[in-house]
Amino acid sequence: MILLHPKKIDAEVWVGVHREAHKLGIMSTATMMYGTVETDEEIVEHFDMIRKLQDETGGFRAFIMWSFQGKNTELLALIPDMEKPSSNRYLRLLAVARLYLDNVQNIQSSWVTQGPYIGQMALRFGANDLGSTMMEENVVSATGVGYNMAQDEMIHLIRDLGETPAVRNTAYETLKYL
Description:
alpha/beta; two-stranded antiparallel sheet; 5 strands; about 15% strand
């Protein structure tokens, strides 16, 4: 991962930071960006680190996975033959995450990178949270991905699956049903 993020902390430090936060009663979310140079084995290692820390501390509120969005990034010059991860791969990895991370209660769909309808499908592949509408999103949109969704559309996508939409806070406490 040094190739992609030379200034980021390594996995052991990341786990240590979350472990200490959890010991202090600070809940956090676990994330995973995939779709660059990682192997399937490295993805499983990532899941395993999250699972083990969750078994130890119970401090993760949610897991959020998204695919790398390479358009308009310098990384494409480093890895010119890199393909955009497919929606099929996203859904399959999400399903594996739900099975592997059965100790993480909430898995969020990444409609921001996948679009509204794959976001909706993710609710049938293991996600139990569509996420939220966004007032401002700069990271993904800077890559040229431009998915937007209003609350009414989110409600429709959830109800279309026979589910009940709800408003929640960041602690995953239901505030009201819609």
